[in-house]
Specification:
The protein is an alpha+beta fold. It is 42% helix and 19% strand.
């Protein structure tokens, strides 16, 4: 006598159920693996690397000057890229365009000021710690007290530069820039003469 379990229609239903269960398991597996992968990717690209803690009273070794407003420094065992806050020197390292007027002079000056030296790095408390490229936005004080941000503006190596929210010294930096421009210092003389 044939039981219900041995019936042909029951065998078909069991086979369909197994196929459905296997498909469901495969779909769940793809979803789980996909979400784990997406989480790790978003962790890499959205949150970025963990920020290093800076001690405003410590001195950090400058390892390399990239250009007039960007350099690298060692914080413990980690090398970070510093973007001097509130100033912009003419470009010298953008591969898409030739060096800008007075860029070489600004870059050479910062190399002479920082290579082989240590600096104190101070964050602006009301601004983001890094820019979109992961560079730390900082006030920079050389080991002898020279305030690099201000110096670059005073001597005409840089223009005042604000992206996003104002930083604490924006008003002072703009006044320093105006004085350098009126006196025709650095790029204000060289680049305006070149443009004329």
């Amino acid at each position: 006598m044939e039981t219900v379990c041995d019936a042909p229609h029951h065998r078909v239903n069991t086979k369909k159920r197994r196929t459905y269960a296997a498909a469901l398991a495969a779909t769940l597996c793809v979803l789980v693996v996909g979400s784990v992968w997406a989480g790790s990717v978003s962790g890499l690209f959205v949150s970025g690397p963990k920020l290093v803690a800076l001690d405003e009273h410590a001195e950090y070794k400058v390892t390399r000057v990239i250009d007039g407003d960007t350099f690298k420094a060692m914080i413990g065992a980690q090398e970070i890229t510093v973007r001097v806050l509130g100033v912009n020197t003419p470009e010298t390292v953008d591969p898409r365009k030739p060096p800008e007027c007075y860029g070489k002079e600004a870059s050479d000056e910062v190399k002479s000021l920082l290579e082989g030296r240590t600096v104190r790095l101070v964050q602006n408390p009301h601004r983001e710690a890094t820019d979109k490229y992961g560079r730390y936005l900082l006030y920079v004080y050389r080991d002898d007290g020279l305030f690099l941000n201000e110096y670059l503006l005073q001597k005409g190596y840089a223009r005042e530069y604000t992206v996003g929210r104002p930083y604490d010294m924006q008003v002072e930096f703009r006044q320093i820039e105006a004085t350098a421009k009126a006196a025709g210092r650095g790029l204000w003389r060289a680049c305006e003469a070149a443009a004329a």
